[in-house]
Amino acid sequence: PYLIAEVDDARGQPLQKSQPAIAGSTAPRTIEGRNAYVMNSLLHTVATAGTGAGTNVLGRGDLQGKTGTTNDAKDGWFAGYQQSLVAVAWMGFDQPKSLGSREFGAQLALPIWVNYMRTALNGVPEQQMPMPDGLTSIDGELYYADRTPGNGFVASVDINPAANAISANDALGSAGAEGLTPPPVTPQEKQQIMDMFESK
Fold first, then answer.
1. Model confidence over 71-100: pLDDT tens digits?
2. Quick check: is 111 in a domain?
3. 155 vs 2, residue with greater confidence
4. pLDDT tens for residues 115-147?
5. In 3D, which of 132, 172, 139 has the Cα closest to residue 40?
6. Residue 56 and residue 48: Cα distance in Å, rounded?
């Protein structure tokens, strides 16, 4: 984002023009392509089958987004995007107060967003994000190709519930003062996980 697009002199001649970085072109990559695709897929599901499913009235398959509501329903919003356009709709009061116990981002802000995008995307062709190399889909779930079930992927951690039962009356339970302990993580595994979030 940038604040000033152009500075002109008294005759309207440009003295300086902003040269913003353009995502996908001149801007540096901030997250790895696989992570971006997985996040895009998650937000697409929210916008088509989750709390943001109201976007379906637009009849587009390239929308992603997330609803939001603050405590006591003082604010409701929907932030959504398509390949070439991002928009956020917010509903709330200048002096925060509840919008009502049954008000959420999907009921208040999402219809505003839909009405705006209906006009803004009129005539704009759908653009799907291509799946990058290094990802695979198994039964509709996305996996890193080198972390598929049975190959560097842990589906669950086997914990014997009977051995680690915690009584409702005993804050410490039989698991001890520390509670349930996760399995140890080697420094190499920890570094592999952290490397997934490095910008490439």
1. 889 999 999 999 999 999 999 999 999 998
2. yes
3. 2
4. 999 999 999 999 999 999 999 998 888 989 988
5. 132
6. 6
> For residue 33, which of 158, 164, 196, 184 has the smallest C-alpha distance?
196
Side chain identity, residue 153: F
108 or 58, greater pLDDT: 58
Write the CB contacts of 16 (distance below 8 Å, at least 6 apart in sequence): 6, 7
In a domain, 164, yes or no: no
Instruction: Give residue 54's domain range.
Output: 34-120
DSSP annotation of 127 reads: -
Alpha-carbon distance of 169 to 162, in angstroms, equals 16
Spatial distance between the Cα atoms of 86 and 54, rounded to a whole number of angstroms: 17
Tokens encoding 115? 């009405």
**Residue pair 10/28 in contact by the 8 Å Cβ criterion:** no
The number of folded domains in the chain is 1
Q: Please, how many CA atoms are within 13 Å of residue 151, restricted to the half-sphere of its CB?
A: 7
> Domain for residue 147, yes or no?
no
Q: Under DSSP, is residue 61 helix (H, G, I), strand (E, B) or coil? A: coil
14-17 and 6-8 beta bridge pairing = antiparallel
- 149: in domain: no
